[in-house]
Write a structure and sequence with these properties.
It is a single chain. The protein is an all-alpha fold and about 350 residues long. It has a domain of about 90 residues: Alpha Horseshoe (Serine Threonine Protein Phosphatase 5, Tetratricopeptide repeat). It is about 75% helix and about 0% strand. The protein contains 18 helices and no strands.
């Protein structure tokens, strides 16, 4: 359905949650994140069965996380979805529960890896037998089940199993967007398994998809950059990080949380390639992106100072090194390195 038709149905108070879900997906792919999230919240006001409501809650959890990088609300939404499907033993309920459990596990992982893995193992113990017995007959449900299983296996570091499920999801996909996302996860599984050449080939194919959204392209070019960096292809990796940065800068509506890290990677590769002017620009931009209360602000400033020193900008390098040396936020290692840098800068700092 097209966007206008879906909006008309919702304006007429559609009682079908699928209308809201479909519109939210269209909005998300076109970087209208706030409206997409608002549409899913609206869907929760529509009377629905527990499985449908759980699916909406899970989708909302993922969208809120992708738009904000916050885990508190997404985790609460996913846990609510799990509770709604408890005690329901249908295939649809099992798939909906597994999708929600994956998100709970992912959001818990930074604070409690053991609990996250326990959640993933529990979900897979129900989901994988369903996939193996071929009782999931509907293509859309099978695609969702395979993608959920892939994510759960990734939480358990079972990347070979995850990549197998990604390939099966690609075959089960019913539209280009589903195929793109299965390729994206396949490339990530290959990279995490150390199968770098295969990962590079998958990501290189995925970035050519005509329907790839800017949000998807940022992740794909970033993944391709990390993969090429691991392969020792530093110039190629830098070009991919540059592309991801450009897409973020061209689309202000995209989440910005990943931009400082991309700028740091770009600066690091520029430094390794002895392109000190680009390294200085990138590290300075990264330092500006981080809050002064974040140690990474000071680490970026340190590398900015190194780049300035390499460019012969001794006075500016000394000034930044002194700032780092006196910072209570900078790490002990960075303060020590700032001291070493200060000793290396000639006393006569005229330029």
């Amino acid at each position: 359905m097209n966007e206008r038709y879906l909006r008309e149905k919702i304006a007429a108070r559609s009682a079908n949650a699928d209308d809201y879900v479909e519109l939210a997906g269209l909005l998300f792919e076109s970087c209208r994140f706030e409206e997409s999230i608002a549409t899913l919240r609206q869907a929760l006001s529509v009377p629905s069965d527990n499985i449908t409501r759980a699916s909406v809650l899970t989708m909302l959890a993922g969208y809120v996380y992708n738009a904000t990088s916050s885990t508190a609300e997404p985790r609460a939404l996913a846990e609510q979805a799990v509770r709604l499907t408890e005690g329901l033993e249908t295939v649809e309920a099992s798939v909906a529960r597994a999708k929600a459990q994956h998100l709970v596990g992912a959001y818990v992982f930074p604070d409690d890896p053991a609990s996250s893995r326990e959640t993933a193992a529990s979900a897979l113990s129900i989901l994988e037998p369903l996939l193996e017995s071929a009782v999931i007959s509907q293509p859309a449900t099978r695609f969702e089940a395979l993608m959920a299983a892939e994510s759960l296996n990734s939480l358990l570091d079972r990347f070979d199993e995850a990549s197998t499920q990604c390939r099966e999801a690609f075959e089960a996909a019913s539209n280009p967007i589903e195929k793109l996302y299965s390729l994206m996860e396949l490339g990530t599984s290959y990279r995490q398994a150390g199968r770098l050449s295969e990962a590079r080939n998958v990501f290189a194919e995925a970035v050519l998809y005509r329907d790839a959204s800017p949000w998807a392209l940022v992740r794909l070019y970033s993944e391709l950059g990390w993969t090429e960096r691991a392969l020792g292809k530093h110039a190629e990796a830098r070009a991919k990080f540059r592309k991801a940065i450009e897409i973020l800068q061209e689309h202000p509506a995209l989440p910005r949380d990943g931009l400082p890290e991309l700028l740091r990677f770009y600066g690091e590769l520029s430094y390794e390639l002895e392109d000190m002017e680009e390294a200085a620009r990138s590290y300075q931009s990264a330092a500006d992106q981080y809050a002064a209360t974040d140690p990474l602000h000071w680490n970026s400033l340190l590398w900015f100072a190194y780049s300035q020193r390499a460019l012969g900008q001794n006075a500016a390098a000394r000034e930044n090194a002194n700032l780092i040396k006196r910072s209570p936020i900078a790490s002990g290692e960075d303060r020590a390195n700032a001291d070493v840098l200060l000793e290396a800068i000639p006393n006569d700092v005229s330029e």
